[in-house]
Amino acid sequence: MSYSGALNPASEDYESRPHYYIGQHDSDRCEVLDDDQYNQVLNSGFNFVTAPITNQHFFRRVVDQHKEFLKERQEWNDRLAPAQRTNPSLPVPIVPTLTDEDTSLYPSHHIGSFITYASPWIDLCSTDPYISGVSRQVLNMEVAYANFCGARTIVIPGPRQDESGRGVAQFARAIQEALLQVTRANLIIHLPMYREPLLEEKCETLSDIFDGSCMDADPKKEIDIFTSWDTWHTIRSVCEYSSRLFLALRIPRRVPEKNLQERWFSEPLHFLTIGQSVFQSNRAGSPTLTKHHQDLINRYMRLKNAPWIILNDVGPNAEDLGAARAIKAIEYPSLAEASKALQERKPKSGLNEYVSYMKDLERQQPPYTAMETPALTSFQDWLQSPLQPLADNLESATYEVFEGDPVKYDQYEAAIKEAMAEWKILKKPSALGTESEPYNPELVCAVAGAGRGPLVTRVLRAAQATNTKIQLWAVEKNQNAFVYLLNKNKREWDGQVTLVKTDMRGWGGPVPRGSSTPCKVDILVTELLGSFGDNELSPECLDGIQNHLFQPSGMSIPHSYTAHLSPISTPRLFADIASRESDPHAFEIPYVVRLFQLDFNAQKVPNHPRFQQAWEFVHPVGVNRADEFAAEYGFGRKYVTPGGGAMYGSNGTNEHNARRCHLTFVCPTRGVTHGLAGYFESTLYESQLEGGGEGKRVEISILPDQIDRKSRDMISWFPIFFPLKKPLYFPQDAELEVSMWRQTDDTKVWYEWLIEVYAWVGPQTRIKVGASEMHSSKKVACLM
């Protein structure tokens, strides 16, 4: 088959897509496939197969033993006194250890390619304590034996009903115990996306055999599509978000609403299982999936650790796999004998039709976008501590990563060009102007925190594009980066830039050509923004340099920035942080992370958007006490206030940069929150033409609902994540109230955050049903 260039890996136009790793599961399979059968399944297009841990012999042995126990118990009832019959210390059934007749699974060189399945006939949720006890023993023996054989993945059928809190708790407790039985294998709980009426898997369990009380779901009962997720949440919570506990999600015939899809998307998916009944037949009689199913699978396959796909009961079945064995049974078959065997057994050759369709679906996926390069994908949900650019000197490689984002610098250049163009139009007073002629076409520009100089280059390009004459200063405290700037000024900028090595807060200001006294700056350009806008101390840095801006027309780029929050569910990040036992402050660090595998808790409703503004900073600040103090006493004298009641007894010199917010988020569906996602937006330049004129606002944003409109494909900043020490559950139609503070003691800056849960119990009444503890990042604060 030939492919177009976009699908041909050898073509220069090849577009990369997620890869499907497809496995085969036969629910009637009772024995592990032998080598011939295994190869036949692989030859039909599958990448792996499932293997039962135990066989029918073990099942019959357990059933027979339980029958004997029930018979023995009846004998006790006949001969014991009534008071003794209910004694809870009477003997209970004990399942004998496995024998070689109970399993066909053994250690082998290809055991790692088997996905082992625990017995589906056990019932850990049974109300009969003897049945649930036997089931627990069977599970422990099976997972221990599979682990011994070298299996690394063990799938366990999940509870068949969600209504019984007692049953689900029993199941969760059994899984917690099973995790202690295995040292290296992962346990995968197989659950449906939601309970489809009359479409549940049919499998006879011990409860069906001995109790007969298993009830089918009422098809007329209203469906609560979140009950299956509730069950999963109980299991993983009891198991404390174990890093070896994963999920196999059964895809339903009818795809549910988007919010449930996103809920499962945020969970630790290991497998997507698709049964034969989910497929439909097209006009040619071949299997196909609906567009909704295709979109769901395509969405899940975008994960960094994409789930594998298991096709259930789509063949080849036991009869198909027997064809090769029938021929092989005759040591030297004649052509006639071989032909007869093939005709009788009719083995299927070539690709399995379901696999063939999935391979077509794989090729039809949208290709990876510019935001899905291997490098960016590797950053999915990878926790990073925020930078401390004031306290630390960055390495060249770090600068290089930031400089690799053309979108940010294009927006900065557009803002600078707008500022220069409007300066001419408005003929604003400038730093090099005089009392008689305030406007001077030559502007004084400064780039503070120049790094390796990308913004310096953009200022020069903007000046050339607008035909603006400028004098340009670049200020940088990193002595290593300063050496790079010196070389770049000679090599690329032709000495046009005056370089100053100092902390911007200690800079004495620009001294224009032909003068010996400092002057002011017309346009000040900085790139101090962090993932939350102010988390890398942009306000504190600009406070120390804004005194050099020419008043009243001097401008700062960026002009303003806002911080935004939204509560999220992100089990993967919570489990990652919880595993960092050596760090006592792990849950009080605001992490920079490319949030991907998450579910937003809140929905957009009137007056309560999904993403809400926490606070804003605007530059320059019209009134600055430190500047007034310096004007009166000079810069050689340290600014202090008469106060002493600020944070930790400080005198409050940075109190004006403290912030606080209280936000209310509406959550229509129940769920769990693991923390707060933080974002920022910035107005780099706001047009000063009356009525907007021909000018425009130049902005950048990392808000999920704004980034495509304001700064599409910008990668310089990932969101920030404020975690909770304990997951916070909330009911349906709850409100999450978020309180956050930006705190300072004049030497450092940190954040404090708290989430409270409220539920409405009447038209005018709501009650508090939960709250997190107060979290504080003071121990890892940003040093000023």
UniProtKB/TrEMBL annotation:
<feature type="domain" description="PRMT5 TIM barrel">
    <location>
        <begin position="45"/>
        <end position="363"/>
    </location>
</feature>
<protein>
    <recommendedName>
        <fullName>Protein arginine N-methyltransferase</fullName>
    </recommendedName>
</protein>
<dbReference type="InterPro" id="IPR029063">
    <property type="entry name" value="SAM-dependent_MTases_sf"/>
</dbReference>
<dbReference type="InterPro" id="IPR035075">
    <property type="entry name" value="PRMT5"/>
</dbReference>
<keyword id="KW-0949">S-adenosyl-L-methionine</keyword>
<dbReference type="Pfam" id="PF17285">
    <property type="entry name" value="PRMT5_TIM"/>
</dbReference>
<dbReference type="Pfam" id="PF05185">
    <property type="entry name" value="PRMT5"/>
</dbReference>
<dbReference type="InterPro" id="IPR035248">
    <property type="entry name" value="PRMT5_C"/>
</dbReference>
<keyword id="KW-0808">Transferase</keyword>
<comment type="similarity">
    <text>Belongs to the class I-like SAM-binding methyltransferase superfamily.</text>
</comment>
<dbReference type="InterPro" id="IPR007857">
    <property type="entry name" value="Arg_MeTrfase_PRMT5"/>
</dbReference>
<dbReference type="InterPro" id="IPR025799">
    <property type="entry name" value="Arg_MeTrfase"/>
</dbReference>
<feature type="domain" description="PRMT5 arginine-N-methyltransferase">
    <location>
        <begin position="376"/>
        <end position="557"/>
    </location>
</feature>
<dbReference type="InterPro" id="IPR035247">
    <property type="entry name" value="PRMT5_TIM"/>
</dbReference>
<feature type="domain" description="PRMT5 oligomerisation">
    <location>
        <begin position="560"/>
        <end position="784"/>
    </location>
</feature>
<keyword id="KW-0489">Methyltransferase</keyword>
<dbReference type="Pfam" id="PF17286">
    <property type="entry name" value="PRMT5_C"/>
</dbReference>
